[in-house]
Amino acid sequence: MFAYTLKRLVQMVPALLGIIVITFILSRVLPGDPAIMLAGEQAPEETVNKIRQDMGLDKPLYIQFFSYIGQLLKGDIGYAYHTGHSVASDLASRFPATVELTLASILIAILVAIPVGIVAATKKESILDHISRVFSLIGACVPIFWLGLMFIYIFYSILGWAPAPMGRISGDLNPPVHLTGLYVLDSILSGDIIALKSSLAHLLLPAICLSTGTMAIVARMTRSSMLEVVDQDFVRTARAKGLRESAVVYKHALVNALIPTLTVLGLQFGFLMGGAVITETIFSWPGIGGYVTDSILAADYAPIQAFTLVSAVLYCGINLAVDLIYGFIDPRIRYE
Amino acid sequence: MKRFKLMSTLVAFSIMLAGCASSANPTNPASTAATGNTGTPAAAVKSNLTVAYSEGGTTLDPAEANDLTSDTLVLAAYDQLVTYGIKTEDGANIANTEDIQPMLAESWEVSDDNTVYTFKLKQGVTFQSGNPVNAEAVAYSFDRVASSSSGSFLYGMAAIKSVKVVDDSTVEITLTNANHNFLQIIAMYTFSIVDQKTVEAQGADYLKTNAAGSGPFTLEKWDPATEAVFTANESYWQGAPSLSKVTMKFTKEASNRVLLLDKGDVDMAIEIPPKDVASLQSNTDLTVASNASNRILFFAMNNNVKPFDNVKVRQAINYAIPYDELLSGVMYGQAKQMKSAVASNTPGFTDAGFVYEHNLDKAKELLAEAGYADGFTFDFTLGSGFDDWEDDAVLIQAELAKIGVTMNINKLARAQFLEQQKTNNLTSYISKWTSFVNDPGYHLGFLLYGKGSSNYINYSNAEVDKLWEEANVETDAAKRTALYEQAQEIITTEAPWAYLYEYNRIVGMSNKISGYAFYPDEVIRFYPLSFEQ
């Protein structure tokens, strides 16, 4: 397994190189001039030219590319003009926010969707199955921005149950001690109950909002793969040897049905990392999605490049992790 | 079995990690709970103000700041040599940009030819670091502006030739030529006086994310993703501010800013959408300040491109604009009819020559006279990012269709729009403009002077140019105003733009806030505000 992991890691290198080249070229070929954005609309041409020089954008593309690679090798991923901070510090503060949101939404999706999928499959064509299918359809169709605004309107504005949609923790509280950057986890680890309550309350609505799509996909995926599995010989054998129904379903059928679900979850994680923009904007969640969108709108190259690179690494990593987890779930899968 | 081992190792490891973590910071949770995380912190502290902003800002460097949030951050932490006075209009406090008041400069003398200004600094003023505010620091700050990326053009606009330190508390600024805007320009955030010693000790990048000023507030925290926090500078030379803490919360979603204000989770919110003004006004705990700003919106037509090279065609477009519908339907009454290329708040404004009204017959007549009786087709470029622009464009498109004119709307992202605009090749577009300096000369010099750097539609009228140039060197205010008035009348008649509206600047706030004043640069000054809690 070690050799396999190593092989996969080596394979990542050309993929990442390709990504670096493509993002670099794409971000520069696309229209939008960072110097103009930075200078503001009242700046005369000379100012814009001066900024262009200061940023090194007047140099030929290949020189810009090599200086970028040189920076990367030194571990410098650049400076974000539209926030006034280094990209590294921006990512350090925003990545954990998105990871926390994504993890929470995946967790909610798993907790809700897998049982729903199992019930739907074992009670096929029952009323529960139909209800679950209708809800998955709704979950897959409802636009997140609408759901988010509705959540805020109902739970914050009318009922007053949810905290103000303003970031990750109440404004009058200090964030928990920085360990992982995930507020919920950090406050558990540091035993800060007040911060835990507040950060959980802030996390709940956006996480549910973000999880709806995943929930729908996972529920349907679990249902269909369960349906495939329950008809197979080994399940019949398990029943025949007199196992309890719960043992048949959870120990024999589910474990075999989880592989496709896991694949989907892995892909969803990557997708949600970049796709949480809308949720982040609506709930003022200081995550990476909004950051990258702003960078694109401001034609700010460094953060766009850094984000693509980091998420590519992350994506490869998650895929690898998913492949390795297959082996734990299904001992028939071997790595060479 | 192997799997179990791995799992148990993992569990043991994570427990160990957790143990380390909590023992490494044994006091922190407790101290957190003591400082902030107790039930009733607000009651003990006096007047904390929370304000919802839309953007998080891009820099704290005064010389580089050119967006609303950054400008606000700078003005909270820094002082300038001079500042604007305040006047009261219809019961509202409004900055008077022509009335220049002393700030760090106690007094100043102007040479007879208006080219040398000698500033006498107030004695005993110190930066927040404790270093004295002296002539060296002033010269240093001005030099920083001269060599900055964004601010350097203002240095040029101010016509500063040199800044000389006469003695510790005297600075002499020489101009290349007499400039009636000089004092107004150096009252801007760009010309904030920075603490030279601190900057030199900390390095050039220090000011990007830190403040080193003598201003009323000390920066505690600035994170563009979430919030900026200021605390009162208790030893401020003009007296400690009445607010002890200001928190700016960055909330991009406009509907959320409205909700937060309505629920009382923030005490003040800027950039309230016009459609939400009525609902906020029904909340008796709130006041909505809706002031006519200097931000204008116009429909620009490229004077080099057929058929907009024909003055009659441009006038016809002016008669086809559904003015009232734009004001009431798009802006919910939170805007004012624009009647000159210059905002009506700007000294020297005149609506002379503005004869336009929504009159499609008149528009058709003019088109026929111009030889376009059957209408024509043209391209219109819509920059994204402003909801009202799109509504305006669609309404105008519908009106133009009635006079046989087809307007093709092409939508571009803001960055692309600005890039395209600078090529001077766009046929027509809608754009906003707020002049940093509240002066018709500054304003027209950018937008409609033949060689103006933001004259993207190639408007060129020899007489307007001549009047502008004459006014520029005219030192008598009344004569200057007369020249600008003539220029405005010609422009309005020649109609290089169709005037749409002047935006209201809408700020919603709790009734308990007092001292709010509107500034034409749209930046809120926190120092004069007070908030009873």
From TrEMBL, chain A:
The Swiss-Prot or TrEMBL record describes its family as follows: Belongs to the binding-protein-dependent transport system permease family.
Q: How does it sit in the membrane?
A: Multi-pass membrane protein
Its Gene Ontology cellular component terms are: plasma membrane
Q: Which residues cross the membrane?
A: 12-30, 101-122, 134-156, 200-219, 253-278, 304-329
Domain named ABC transmembrane type-1 is located at: 95-326
What the entry lists under Pfam families is as follows: BPD_transp_1, BPD_transp_1_N
UniProt keyword list: Cell membrane, Membrane, Transmembrane, Transmembrane helix, Transport
**Gene Ontology molecular function:** dipeptide transmembrane transporter activity
Can you say where in the cell this protein is located?
A: Cell membrane
Identify this protein by name: Peptide/nickel transport system permease protein
From TrEMBL, chain B:
InterPro entries recorded: Peptide/Ni-bd (IPR030678), SBP_5 (IPR039424), SBP_5_dom (IPR000914)
**Ranges where the Solute-binding protein family domain occurs:** 100-454
Query: Where found in the cell?
Result: Cell envelope
Keywords, in A-Z order: Signal, Transport
Give any single GO term for biological process. peptide transport
Highest taxon of the lineage: Bacteria
Q: Name one GO cellular component term.
A: ATP-binding cassette (ABC) transporter complex
Q: Name one GO molecular function term.
A: peptide transmembrane transporter activity
Main location, first listed in the record:
other
Which interval of the chain is the signal sequence? Answer: 1-23
According to its UniProt record, which protein family does this protein belong to?
Belongs to the bacterial solute-binding protein 5 family.
Q: Per its record, how is this protein called by name?
A: Peptide/nickel transport system substrate-binding protein
